[in-house]
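Inverse folding, one chain.
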């Protein structure tokens, strides 16, 4: 498959056009219109011969929303089709401050977290930087947003896939998303969720980008983490915590620990006490999430009382705690479920 033209950074596009004998201002024209949601062929103020030349090398932006599920709470779930007919998902969440879009970084996932639906089929392939950016562009257009009047206000890399398993494309996506000629997101408005690929957390800390990082911890000790997350077989929990400390030291961004509560697995008061001890002294917040049950495994959600006790135990130990508001439970809440159901319907 050709590289998406959306994968070109502004500087790369400018170099490409100069090499084709085009004036430098063409880069700003094309970059702006692509990020405004237009296909290359739809841009009217550039020569047709230039379009044809570019399309000989690059894939036009063909990512499209083919299905939308709307929740009673206003959350919308997108099924996107890519140029090679692969499918990915995205979730659009509405808040008082605006819209947050959850984007995917891979088709499927190879991390194999046992409670997660997105990795049930394994990793199909990683997304190009332009395919990650394309999700934001088409969602913004869906909301009738433009480059000048952006509707998608925040981006979270929390969809299908492990972003740091697709490190180079994700780093390039950050370049695309924060460029002043495009949708121009502030780094503080972009968050990345990782299951804990330690070496790439450190690389990201050293990259110069200061985005928010969310660490999918989900356990208070090595034994529990290894039972539910394959990544824990490669990295001790202490290594993950140290990488988070390093990220904070380099970027000044407070760490958000995501903790999915699974009944009779990681949700006891003892687990809460262990967790508090593990992260004591780190500038962080724990975001408790009640499990999205997946029919392919036997994990169950905790009772409200168990969730309350866990949160109160952390607070008593001086840990900042939030409980994620459950959104979109009526529209295939688990990541990967809409994609799997759609594929089954087509077969």
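Residues assigned per position:
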């Amino acid at each position: 498959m050709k590289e998406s033209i959306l994968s070109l950074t502004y500087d790369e596009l400018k170099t490409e056009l100069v090499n084709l004998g085009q004036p430098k201002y063409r880069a700003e024209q094309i970059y702006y219109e692509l990020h405004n949601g237009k296909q290359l062929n739809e841009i009217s103020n550039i020569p047709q011969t230039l379009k044809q030349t570019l399309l000989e090398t690059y894939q036009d932006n063909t990512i499209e929303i083919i299905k939308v599920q709307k929740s009673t709470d206003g959350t919308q779930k997108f099924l996107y089709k890519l140029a090679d007919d692969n499918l990915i998902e995205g979730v659009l969440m509405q808040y008082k401050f605006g819209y947050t879009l959850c984007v995917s970084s891979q088709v499927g996932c190879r991390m194999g977290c046992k409670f997660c639906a997105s990795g049930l089929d394994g990793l199909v392939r990683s997304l190009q930087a332009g395919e990650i950016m394309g999700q934001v562009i088409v969602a913004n257009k869906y909301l009738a947003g433009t480059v000048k009047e952006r509707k998608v206000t925040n981006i979270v890399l929390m969809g299908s896939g492990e972003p740091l398993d697709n490190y180079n494309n994700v780093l390039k996506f950050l370049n695309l998303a924060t460029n002043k000629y495009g949708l121009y997101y502030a780094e503080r408005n972009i968050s990345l969720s990782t299951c804990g690929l330690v070496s790439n957390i450190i690389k990201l800390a050293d990259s110069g980008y200061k985005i928010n990082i969310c660490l999918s911890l989900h356990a208070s000790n090595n034994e529990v983490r290894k039972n539910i997350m394959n990544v824990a077989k490669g990295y001790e929990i202490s290594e993950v915590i140290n990488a988070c400390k390093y990220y904070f030291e380099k970027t000044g961004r407070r760490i958000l620990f995501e903790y999915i509560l699974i009944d009779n697995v990681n949700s006891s008061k003892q687990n809460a006490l262990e967790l508090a001890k593990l992260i004591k002294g780190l500038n962080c917040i724990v975001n408790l999430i009640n499990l999205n049950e997946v029919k392919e495994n036997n994990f169950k959600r905790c009772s409200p009382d168990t969730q309350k006790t866990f949160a109160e135990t952390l607070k008593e130990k001086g840990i900042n705690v939030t409980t994620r508001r459950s959104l979109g439970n009526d529209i295939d809440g688990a990541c990967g479920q809409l994609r799997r159901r759609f594929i089954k319907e087509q077969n």
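The chain has a mean pLDDT of 92. The longest strand covers residues 87-95.
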